[in-house]
Amino acid sequence: MPTVANFELFRDPTITLQLESNPRMRIQADISFVPALDEGILLTWVARCLDSGSVIYRILVNGNEGQGGYTLDAGSWSSMQEVFCTDSIRQGTNDILFEVGGGTASLRISDVVLFYRQNLCLV
Asked: Residue 49 maps to which CATH number?
């Protein structure tokens, strides 16, 4: 069965997270096609550490945690990516959670995009 690469833009605008006041950002997004099995999915985002100090955060996709925590130091920003198992994502509504778990700085997240492959049914 042929497959094709596809992507979903989950969030483009920035949001700022901070341990004390706004530690979580939950994104719910729909995927209308079933991802190809055993292909994995790639989640990308831009993360920036604001203020002085550092920030520690993690990501969950439908309750499945990625590689663990990420740490950014003052003034740094990165374009990040992480591969999740295919069964971490599903057809229909998906829940992506960014959560600050430590540090004194603020975290700015933007440009959250999911890349995946889908099976094509040719008739």
From this structure: 2.60.120.260
